[in-house]
Amino acid sequence: MQFLQELQERYIQEFSNNVPLSEFLLNILVASILAGILRLFYIHFGNAISNRRRFANNFLPLALGTLLIIMIVKSSIALSLGLVGALSIVRFRAAIKDPEELVYLFMTIGIGLACGANQPILAGISIVVILAVLWISKRINGEAVGNTGRLFINISTDLDDLEKVSAVLLAHLPYVELKRLDTLEKGLDLSYIARADTPEQLNALQKEIRSLSEHTRLSLLEQPELIV
């Protein structure tokens, strides 16, 4: 027990000499706060289709893990060489489905790098500026393009009455335009572009479309680039 205690004290003393404890705690605190801010921003303003809340839960451990690695590397040359060898056998195969996810991962790693290099002020200023620019850009692009609620709608049905199907759409959506009609062996395959103002409109639409017939299928695809 005494040997283990002496060994522990020696390593703590060595760590304190290379990395002051106050700096270590400050950098961890700053990295945690910035990762939390980035998480909230991504959840509320991100455009990814995947579960943003679940994905954003990775930001904090990723930032702190990166911080720990950088502090180890800069505190000991021997440990840094060992780290290179260890990482050479680790292979990361995380599936990134949206480029936006990769952007936020890089920002999270940047937080860890800056705080691990004892640059918490730089990390804080950079993240605040980047998020402010992103927020302004989203506001400008959103107002310029007006891309809220633009939809591509496909309806496959065994009904032959085009007017009946179109009437359902017109009853629930403020703008509907038929773009394609294909006749099937039994029924129609219809493609529309449309605009929806609220989720309630879509909810009511899908209920009434499904009530038309047992074999009617509705597909909705958001298309922000549509001008309707």
Please outline the major beta sheet: 4 strands, antiparallel
Strand order of the largest sheet: 2-3-1-4
Helical percentage: 55-70%
Low-pLDDT stretches are 143-147
N to C succession of SSEs: HHHHHHHEHEEHE
Give the mean pLDDT: 79
Which shape, going by the Cα principal axes?
Answer: elongated
Alpha-carbon Rg, integer: 27 Å
Strand content: 5-15%
Number of helices: 9
Structural class by secondary-structure content: alpha+beta
Number of DSSP strand runs: 4
What is the first-to-last residue Cα distance? Answer: 75 Å
Structural notes for this entry:
The chain has 9 helices and 4 strands; from the N terminus they run αααααααβαββαβ. It is of the alpha+beta class. A 4-stranded antiparallel beta sheet has the order 2-3-1-4, with helices on one face. Helix 2 packs parallel to helix 7 (120-145) and helix 8 packs antiparallel against helix 9. The radius of gyration is 27 Å and the shape is elongated.
SSE map:
Blueprint: H1 2-18, H2 21-45, H3 52-56, H4 59-75, H5 77-87, H6 99-116, H7 120-145, E1 150-157, H8 162-172, E2 175-183, E3 188-195, H9 199-212, E4 217-222
Antiparallel strand pairs: 1-3, 1-4, 2-3
Helix pairs in contact: 2-4, 2-6, 2-7, 4-5, 4-6, 6-7, 8-9
